[in-house]
Structure prediction request, 132 residues.
Amino acid sequence: MAIRIFHRDTPSLRLPLISKDARFVIWPGTGAWHANLNYVRLEAGEANTPHVHTISEDTIFILQGEGTAYDYTNDIELTFHAGCVVHVPVGVKHAIAADRGVEVVSVGGPSPADVPLLKAVGALPADAEPPA
Prediction:
């Protein structure tokens, strides 16, 4: 495989679980099984559906806005703003919310790609597996 270029405006998957405008740019659907990069816009007042990455750490770089990172596993709420990075360890139930009256724009995602979650939401076939 060679170097390729992708653009946030032409994602190969959009996932409403994350937001009305969650664009999967780099993920197994593009051949990347060990990395994942999503471009996500949360409208003011919008939040992710709380979810868990069972095999992946989630790293989210906040480009714009401010909001709250909810850690449901440990009953923690942390505020963030542009320039912050939210890191979610494997197995932590979490959600990101644009709950401070402004839109939140971020890039990042689980690494390695969360294949079980992608299968569960129908983004990958049940028999999809990383290449050997």
